[in-house]
């Protein structure tokens, strides 16, 4: 297998790294609480879609007012200092926007996800205000990065579908309508990574407690969708598979990105025992030589790789 320009050998991310990437790049989760009766039995499970952010290694959750789950929390724990001990869990899926989500559904492949269990803790107004200010600073930083982006980065971000909204846009609406949300802190007691095949991998809380929200993670969803919505860039992904993995792909989509590289889901031929050939979807990992920490570096390197792969194909096809 030929290596990427400026790359090291292909190295798979550890389970802990994949877990941290999911937590850092997403901002939506499903929060579950279990209603216990007087006998201690736990039958009724309440689930709600919530927004979250990490601050000092802890996730903070915004629950919509009027939500059934929130009503049950307040009914069972009316104190402002309530701790819902061991009865809360949070499920966070990897970001799978646009055509990628449709593809995963069609091949019955589940997006990897992270399952957290722990304590849901109410906060006083002062603490809620500090969390909101931290979120506001993060939103401003994200807006500045996007507004000052180069043409290369802007072209990728602007190619994302209309339903693929930036993280800052969603959170800005929450801050503007803060009275419509209740904020809780989530103390993590256990963590599991569930892969695309449904296999669970338990992790130490210390391994995933403080994911770094770098520029790559802030824009993961729009970068992935911007690449996948462009036929030209998808053809480039097919070239990557051919040039660096010797795989002739009929189609390809960006599956995930991170500081160390990216994963592609490509439709490639597989030979069968009866000498027939069938195309199936397969994952390919591409690893950078050095980590990249901002979207300019990531998109710039992606363009370099596209040009390199194209020139290489031209050279041995006689078109160069």
TrEMBL record:
Gene3D superfamilies: Electron Transport, Fmn-binding Protein, Chain A (2.30.110.10), PNP-oxidase-like (3.20.180.10). It comes from the Eukaryota. SUPFAM superfamilies: FMN-binding split barrel. Residues 233-305 form the DUF2470 domain. InterPro entries: DUF2470, Haem_oxidase_HugZ-like_sf, Split_barrel_FMN-bd. PANTHER family: DUF2470 DOMAIN-CONTAINING PROTEIN, EXPRESSED PROTEIN. This is DUF2470 domain-containing protein.
